[in-house]
Amino acid sequence: MSLPIAEAAPGTADPPERGRIVTGQDYVDSLRGRGLRVFLFGKLVEEPVDHPMIRPSIDAVAETSTTSSWPHSAPPPSGSSAAAATPSSLS
Questions:
Q1: CA–CA gap between residue 54 and residue 58 (Å, rounded)
Q2: Are 66 and 23 in contact (CB under 8 A)?
Q3: CA 22, 31, 80 angle in degrees (round to 5)?
Q4: Assessment of whether the complete model's pTM goes beyond 0.70
């Protein structure tokens, strides 16, 4: 049994915009309302995105997805460690 594959929109190489994760906030939003059954210490977590023990991990992944694209879009915020790691500073 084969599953359907999302086709690229005409004239593009990317799949349709629906569900596309571009920013860290897109990532967080994509996790909300999925009806996941997540248990923590034996108790069901109603909305994992809002749980105080889970949210820091979600935020870390969201930040990584936002900053990992900086060489191809905007530079990282000034003062960040990524700003200091330029090719000239690595030699």
A1: 7
A2: yes
A3: 50
A4: no
Using 50, 70 and 90 to split pLDDT, how confident is the model at 38?
very high
pLDDT at 7 over 50: no
- 31, 58 contact by CB (below 8 A): yes
How high is the pLDDT of residue 21?
83
Angstrom distances, CA of residue 85 to CA of 58, 72, 81, 89: 25, 15, 7, 6
> Whole-angstrom Cα distance, residue 17 to residue 26?
12
Asked if residues 68 and 22 have their Cβ atoms less than 8 Å apart, the reply is no
pLDDT at position 6: 42
- Using alpha carbons, select from 66, 71, 67 the residue that is nearest to residue 25: 66
